[in-house]
Amino acid sequence: MALAGGDTYYTGDGTSYTLGQVSAGNCNFMYDPGVGDNYAALNSEQWDSTLNCGRCAEVSCADSRCSDTTSTQTVYIVDRCPECSKGDLDLSPTVFKALTGSDPSRYSIKWKFVDCPVSGNIQYCTKSGSSSSWLAVQPANFANGVASVKIADQDVTMVDSCYYFLLNGGSNVDISAVDIQLTSVSGETITDTLSLTADVCTEGTSNFGRSTTQQSSTSQTSQSSTSESTQTPSTSAPTEAPTATTATPTAPVVSTGSSATQSEVSTYFNTLNSGSSSNGTSYQAGKVTAADESGSGVAILQASEAGVEKTSSTQPDDASQTNSDDTEQVTTKSEDSSSGTSPVFIALAVLAVVGGIALAAFAYRVKKKNADDKNIDRNEAMNRSFGTFSSPVRINETIAKI
Which of 4, 82, 92, 241 is most buried when burial is the number of CB atoms within 10 A of its CB? Predict the structure, then answer.
């Protein structure tokens, strides 16, 4: 059957419908050339037993209600509209809106077949269940419509209700190296030697409309492992990972008794670099002066960058933040207001514990001595009761002598 070329315009009604995906159309395409929202269903009279599947149409609005009848949209024929009359197209909602500016309705349109804006080579998709004795091949991603197909130099038929060219003559073919010849509606012929696999699309070596040569000699192609076109999403370059920092160990911070005391102590240490404590002991910023036996206060300062490595902090302590330099207060203890634990207090506590232990030991020894004394007294009493000098015999002898 001869297919219409690209110079003939058709007029009819344009309507709108929604198609979930390309493979859901009556053409049953395994490969999506990038149809997106630019799809259409062709009327039954021009369906031509699926032979117009995969072709493209350039559509414009011919209705008086359209404000612009010159703008066009290119659509892929992927489906059939059984209730449509000749010249009618059932368009996607996106295309219908772009042409008419209206919500889905029925508008007069004008259209013609054109080359498809595809990229890459023709795809040869093999139907599931295909074998060397029953081979169904579906061309896809072609620029111009396919008018006829030969497989292994043999004529083919069409699979009912879907777009496949079937070789079912009873003769076995080597599907690992099979010749497939395509002829476009404009008469261009392409021949590819392919290694086919059931339910897989294999890329050919060329496409229609690439040159003026009518015959394209090709070699065997490598098999494509995908059955549908997938577009690789763009990935943003990962941001550079922040440089890891190691915190500088610092002495534990002893909290002060109140916010007023904190402010006073902070102000004092911000302005003080060196000096003497109340007991006359000299100190210097960055040095630690231990408490003496009199229980004097302990002053601990962290020097600026020259002495101790500073580390960044996202939430600095109000009591330790300075305004005049980089000196950071680590530990403070006010002589007037001390809430920490002094060495004298610790020593007294230790002495109290030791004294308590000693007292307990002394009490134990006294109690044990008393118990021993009682035992001795009891034993002596028993000895006196049953001793020789107190026995009844000796008493009788004594009386007799008297």
Answer: 92
Q: How many angstroms separate the first and last alpha carbons of the chain?
A: 170
Contact 88, 15 (CB under 8 A): yes
* Helices marked H in 78-121: 93-100
Q: Which domain holds residue 92?
A: 10-114
CATH number at residue 163: 2.60.40.760
- Bridge partners, 191 (sequence order): 181
What's the rounded mean pLDDT across residues 280-301? 46
d(CA 113, CA 59): 9
CA 310/CA 245 separation, integer angstroms: 11
In the chain, the number of structural domains is 4
Residue range 63-95, pLDDT digits in tens: 999 999 999 999 999 999 999 999 999 999 999
- Give per-residue pLDDT as tens, 18-31: 999 999 999 999 99
C-alpha neighbours within 13 Å on the C-beta side of residue 326: 10
Q: Are 1 and 51 a contacting pair, CB within 8 Å?
A: yes
In a domain, 227, yes or no: no
Q: Is the pLDDT of residue 298 over 60?
A: no
Q: What is the mean pLDDT of residues 132-153?
A: 96
Distance (Å, rounded) from C-alpha 155 to C-alpha 150? 5
Residue ranges in 236-310 assigned as alpha helix (H): 259-271
The pLDDT score that the predictor gives to residue 355 is 85
Report the predicted TM-score, pTM, of the whole model to 2 decimal places.
0.54
Whether residue 17 is found in the same domain as residue 43: yes
Q: How far apart are CA 107 and CA 64, in angstroms?
A: 9
Contact 91, 14 (CB under 8 A): yes
Looking at residue 288, the DSSP 8-state letter turns out to be: B
Helices (H), strands (E): how many in the chain? 4, 20
CATH code for position 42: 2.40.40.10
Please state the rounded mean pLDDT for residues 183-190. 96
Give the number of residues written for the chain. 402
- What is the C-alpha separation between 353 and 252, in angstroms, rounded? 27
Residue corresponding to tokens 């609005």: 61
pLDDT digits over 45-64, tens only? 999 999 999 999 999 999 99
Type of residue numbered 384 = R
In a domain, 235, yes or no: no
